[in-house]
Amino acid sequence: MIKKMIILLITFIVVGYQILFIYGFGYLDGRKQIETLWKFHDFKPMAYSIWVLDHLNYKIIWLLPILSLISGIWAAWQSNYLKIFLGVSIPIIVVTALYAAVYISVLFIPA
């Protein structure tokens, strides 16, 4: 029971971060702010960063948090540790890839 609660808690936190990222950079002015930062420092972002930011306006991007939620719920009811690991790691990898698309480029800006 505790294992299921921990897996679901991790899943909900990760899905929450995915939703914040998609909404913040796709529908609010987060993209404008990051592009202003890039222009101010005369920095050319990586192609992956541009690709991710270009695709955030499509409605299909909302499948990522939904599929991550399904993956986490599926993992909570598994008894095999490999299946649990896969079910929890997929949402974590997705959220890491989304945030890395923007913030890795920002890290290359000299201080």
Report the end-to-end length measured between terminal Cα atoms: 47 Å
Q: How many strands, which pairing sense, and closed or not: the largest β-sheet?
A: none
Structural class: mainly alpha
* Strand proportion: under 5%
Helix content: over 70%
Judging from the principal axes of the Cα atoms, what is the shape?
elongated
Radius of gyration: 16 Å
What does this structure look like?
This protein has 111 residues and is mostly helical. The protein has helices at residues 2-26, 30-40, 47-55, 63-76, 81-107. Helix content is 77%, strand content 0%.
Provide the descriptors you would attach to this structure in a database record.
mainly alpha; 111 residues
Quick structural summary:
By secondary structure, this protein is mainly alpha-helical. It has five helices and no strands.
Topology:
Elements: H1 2-26, H2 30-40, H3 47-55, H4 63-76, H5 81-107
